[in-house]
Design goal:
62% helix
Length: 352
């Protein structure tokens, strides 16, 4: 096993790893050819390969050393809102791209929106600054998944690793059974949680804003390229949503919180999320694979997230684990020994 270097990953590494595909895609939408291949191969293959070649990097404990973290999040958030209409026009509109280049644009854009745009928006909805929160919510509305801005904070963080959380996958449950349950459950429970918060205090329901934003996005898609534009925008949104749900599926698969004698769930701990320590995909995904620390400290800025020694780890980069989860038989076989070790380490654990 490679030794971890002492110095933490600098913020510039997060910026380069996460933003590099954006100019490649921009040049590809204009010129096609090798730029699109570079963006696609970077997202789909290169990052996973480089993860195996460079030592892992520990987390940083002093968030004050990262004053530019929110600026990076805002840059990515604005980039997602610019890329979606541009990619829709390039794929469905009268661009000069060939059929193969349009396919590359679709997948490279979807990968970046799901593996970079989502982690950035996820961080934004945890920021106390209302402008940053609204930017994160605007991203989720644009990909027709606005409920995530509410359900993630109000439902998932409260009920994670229990039956009450629709976004925690059960042991043996396939992704294809999990995804519709998680989508519908998060929509309903997020709406109920927001409604309860507003009981006796009339105000605009966030779901009205989410649905309005999604409707505006689809109208914009139609204005860009008619019915083909509407279909492509929707397909990009579903592609992105599938990656968000895959991430939820992998990061909590089979992990459960025990019931205490009084019937309450045990407090959330490091053992209730799967983590990965691979440096480049962690940098590209803004430390989203350091998931245990995020659940323990939701407001901690992404560069400061740590890898607790007692947190369960997967041997694969998170994007590779998500790809494996698309093949249920392979996924269950690969996860079986890791889940068994976790269960052995918690002899009193019972399904919540």
């Amino acid at each position: 096993m490679q030794a971890e270097p002492r110095r933490p990953l600098p913020l510039a590494s997060f910026a380069v790893a996460s933003l590099l595909p954006l100019p490649l895609l921009g040049l590809g939408l204009w010129h096609g050819g090798l730029w699109l291949w570079a963006a696609f191969l970077y997202m789909a293959i290169l990052t996973i390969l480089l993860d195996q070649l460079v030592p892992l990097v520990p987390g940083q404990s002093d968030a004050s050393e990262f004053p530019g973290a929110d600026l990076l999040l805002a840059t990515i958030g604005l980039g997602t809102l610019a890329l979606l209409p541009a990619a829709t026009w390039a794929i469905a509109g009268p661009s000069a791209l060939t059929f193969t280049e349009r396919v590359l644009t679709f997948f490279a854009t979807g990968f970046w929106l799901g593996q970079v745009g989502h982690p950035a928006a996820h961080e934004l909805i945890h920021r106390p600054n209302r402008t940053l929160f609204r930017l994160g919510a605007a991203y989720y509305s644009a990909i027709l998944f606005g409920q995530h801005a509410s359900a993630h904070r109000l439902v998932h963080h409260r009920h994670v690793a229990s039956r009450e959380d629709p976004n925690s996958a059960r042991a043996g449950e396939s992704f294809y059974r999990f995804a519709p349950r998680a989508w519908i459950g998060s929509f309903r429970q997020g709406c109920a949680a927001e409604t309860a918060l507003r009981s006796g205090h009339p105000s605009l329901h966030p779901y009205a804003a989410y649905l309005t934003g999604s409707a505006a996005a689809l109208i914009l898609a139609s204005l860009i390229a008619g019915l083909p534009g509407l279909l492509i925008w929707t397909a990009l949104a579903l592609h992105t949503q599938s990656q968000i749900l895959l991430s939820d599926y992998v990061q909590h698969y089979g992990l459960t919180r025990a019931r205490l004698p009084d019937g309450r769930l045990e407090p959330v701990g490091p053992g209730h999320s799967w983590n990965t320590a691979h440096w480049l995909t962690s940098a590209m995904m803004l430390n989203a694979p350091r998931h245990s620390d995020h659940h323990l400290n939701p407001s901690r800025p992404f560069p400061a997230l740590r890898l607790p020694d007692d947190a369960p780890r997967l041997p694969w980069p998170l994007p590779l684990a998500c790809a494996m989860a698309l093949c249920p038989r392979i996924w269950r076989r690969a996860m079986s020994p890791h889940l068994a070790r976790w269960q052995d380490s918690r002899p009193g654990n019972t399904t919540a």
